[in-house]
Structure formats: structure tokens, C-alpha cells
Amino acid sequence: MAKKTKRLAPTLPRGFVDRDAVEIASLEQMFHRIRSVYERYGFDPVETPLFEYTESLGKFLPDTDRPNAGVFSLQDDDEKWLSLRYDLTAPLARYFAQNYDALPKPYRSYRQGYVFRNEKPGPGRFRQFMQFDADSVGAPDPAADAEMCMMMADVMDELGLGGKFIIRVNNRKVLDGVLAAAGLADQPETSLTVLRAIDKMDRLGEDGVKLLLGAGRKDESGDFTEGAGLDEAQIARILAYVTADADADKMFDVLAAQVEDSEAGAQGVAELKEMQALFDAAGYARDKIKIDPSVVRGLEYYTGPVFEAELTFPVTNEKGQTVVFGSVGGGGRYDGLVSRFRPEPVPATGFSIGVSRLAHALQLVGELDVTEKQGPVVVLIMDKDQIASYQAMVAELRQAGVRAELYLGASKNMAKQMKYADKRNAPAVIIEGSQEREAGEVQVKDLVAGKIASETITSNEEWRAARPAQVSVKRGDLVAHIKSLLETDSADGE
């Protein structure tokens, strides 16, 4: 009895996904539009490798004591640890420092690529995903941060999301100044609880945040979240800060009052004020780019202005609740990252787009084409000894700019070849048997026509009168006929 061969199960690793031609093509549409905005602003592409030395990725990893925690890592043959990049910013910092003398300052670049997180996967949470970043390294002034916000707004407009987004802006220095004025500068755990409460402002409102700043809050399910335990004066200061944007004309005065004598806080308020003046001068209204004190991002990472792109149209979440779509990207100033490699200070600012989340949003609003791409014209093989003749047809079509292929499957059964053409979403097939060859003709079978006809034409007679599904064409007229057919299909499909 023959021993059975044990076959591997074709299993995808947890937290990873395959992408088919339709998804790849739809993402490329989005990437093209994003790139067009980046390059309009004078940013150039750069590409860094998937692997970096683990020490180059630095303290911003989840766990620096164990190189295999939070990142995918391996040891090279020289015993140095390598890690798959965790984001696109740390590799940029290494690249800039390594090429410091050759690069212009500031260095304006954008990058698109996969990043990797060695974390437990879950719904919407993957271990490999794509980001699309833009950064300006060596630009110290708030004008560079303002430009990032304006570029984010222009990207959203370019993607067809005008009127459906807001760029929200804050400053880490102002946050630190308010915490210091509230007497929390030396209380990191309490400060973190306060910042988490502030971050819930858009969801819980002022009353909910007030409870979280005090003794705590019980939600609708009865679950209790312990609060920061602040006194009334501290709570009043934090709430005055968080709601400072309620009156745009007085906002900066309110912010200045809440940071009191904090030099860093006052500097942060001044930076926000300068950025607002630039937004106004460039014509970005406050319903497009808004100073919002409740924005809290990457507290161990950002050193100045922070910003977030939030989509404001409603969607239904997994609990059946109507909520706004939310954040699709963000960033800020990170003046400490590049300086790990250089003796001199190197200021930097940038933002990152979450590609999958943004693509999902564009699908919801009908701004991303996820229809199956039209396949190639397929030349069928009717006579095995005429393959050279069939290949000549394919070559002529390709030279004329028509996507075409010769059927190269194992079966020479016509029905199976037609089934293959259907699976390839071919617009047409070309058939040449011995009778056609003797007559100097080919048969062209229009596969798209039937799909369009089934939606618009009610009778077979009407369809045959309008456009026959299969016609005989002189061999010398094949290319012209196919090009005409494809142009007609394109017009009918619009």
C-alpha cells in the first residue's frame, strides 16, 4: 500500500492579510492622489529598508529591554539584532543622520510602505500594515508644523473628502504647562490619567471629563473608571483649558491664563497663535483646521505641535451606535528623535496616514473604485500547430497598447478556455479555427457586451440589432476592431 504524502495546509499567519488585484489597484488610485499633493508641496520620495538595527529604532519601541517584544527581530551572523521597522519615522531619522552632509536642510520627504508590530492581532488590528508619511527634518519653526496641517487638509480634499473632515491641532508644550500650573508636574501617573480623560472630551463631553478628573465615572453598563482624584481648583483649570476653543476670539488668552508662569507653556501658546495666523493667511477656515486643546497624541514622542486628521461623517460601529468615523492619521513635532544620532539639535515634524483605515473611509463615501479591473483580451488556441500564428495576434495587440494574452493553460477544450477568459474578466476573446484561417478572418466574441446588455436591453432581438455578441473580422482589421470595441465598452461602462 502506497504511503500517503502529508501535505501542508495553506494557512495565513495570524495578523497578516493577502491582497488581490482589485484591492491593490484601488489603493494605487489613493496613493497617486496623495503623492500628487505631497509633490505639489515640494516633498520628494525616499525609501528605506524593511529591516533596521534594533538599537536604531530606539526607545520608542514598546519594550527596549527585550528586542523581540513588540517587534519582529532576529540576530544577524555578526550577532547584531535586526528588527522589522515599527514605523516609517525612526528609519527616516537614521537615513537623515547617515546622509546628513549630502541632504538639504530642511529635508522634505515622503515614504510609503509596510510596518510591522509583533502584537496580538484582533479585529482591524494587524501585525503588518501600511503607512504613508511626510516629514520635514531640520525645520525648527511652527510654520513647518502649520504646513503639515495644511498639506493634510489638501490631501483630504484631493481624496474627495471635502466637508467631511477636520484637522485638529494642539501643542504638547501647552499641555505640559497646564499640568505644571495644576501642580502635577512631578506626578506622572496622575498626569497620565488626566491626559486620558482629556482625550475622551469628544466622546464624553465636559461633564464626563469632569467626572474622570475627579473621583471617577460609571458608564451605561455600570463599569466604573477610577478618576485622577484632582481637587476642585485643579479640575476647574483643566476644564478651562480643554474648553478654551469654545470662544475662538478669546482662546489664546484663556490658554495663556491656564499655563500661568510656565515658560514652555507660554511658548506653546505662542506657537499655536502663530500657526493660526498662517492658517488664516492661507485661507484655511476653522471648520477645516482647528486649534483643539483636547488633542492628545504620543506623549513620549512629540515635543511641540501635534495634529490629527479626523473624518466627521457618521458611521455605525460594532455596537450599532452612530458615531463619527474618526482619525485616519496624525503627527506632530518630534525634535528628539534625529538628535540621538547627531551632536547638534535636529528639529523635525511630520505626519502619518493610516492607509487601510483611510481606504475604508473612501470606500464608504464612494471615492475609491473597488470594481474588478478589466482583464486582457484572450486569444484562444484552436489548433496546437498554429500557436505561432496566435502569438503573432497577441504581439500585434500588445504593440498597439492593448492588454492581451495567449491562453497557455493545459486544456485546449474551447468551453474551458472560455471559462478561463470569464474568470480573467476578459473584454473579448479571439477565435481562429481552420475555416477562419482559410477565409483570412477571425471571430471576435464580445464578453463585456452581454453584461451591459443584461442591464439595459430587454430583448435578444433588440440586443442583436444594437450590437452582435460575435462577429467575423478580417485578420488585417483585428487590432482596429479590438481597439474600437474596447473604446465602446469604456464609454458604455461610464
Automatic annotation (TrEMBL):
Residue span, Aminoacyl-transfer RNA synthetases class-II family profile domain: 34-376
EC number(s) per entry: 6.1.1.21
InterPro entries: aa-tRNA-synth_II, aa-tRNA-synth_II/BPL/LPL, Anticodon-bd, Anticodon-bd_dom_sf, His-tRNA-ligase, HisRS-like_core, HisRS/HisZ, HisRS_anticodon
Protein's cellular compartments: Cytoplasm
PROSITE patterns: AA_TRNA_LIGASE_II
Molecular functions per Gene Ontology: ligase activity
Superkingdom, taxonomy of origin: Bacteria
HAMAP family: His_tRNA_synth
Quaternary organization: Homodimer.
Name under which the protein is recorded: Histidine--tRNA ligase
Organism: Maritalea porphyrae
Protein encoded by which gene: hisS
